[in-house]
Design brief:
mainly alpha; 2 helices; membrane; transmembrane helix; transmembrane
């Protein structure tokens, strides 16, 4: 069981399962990046 989970994590880190990155995941990633950019802008303002 542990080996299977480790393999999944390794594949996620390597970015091999590109098909798994659905539109919802990319949208969430974009929102997180936008929020991070706004926070960084306010901090360094």
């Amino acid at each position: 069981m542990g080996n299977i989970m480790e393999d999944e994590i390794d594949r996620d880190i390597d970015g091999v399962p590109k098909a798994r990155l659905s539109n919802r995941d990319s949208i969430i990633l974009g929102i997180v990046l936008i929020i991070f950019a706004i926070v960084a802008y306010l901090i360094f303002l």
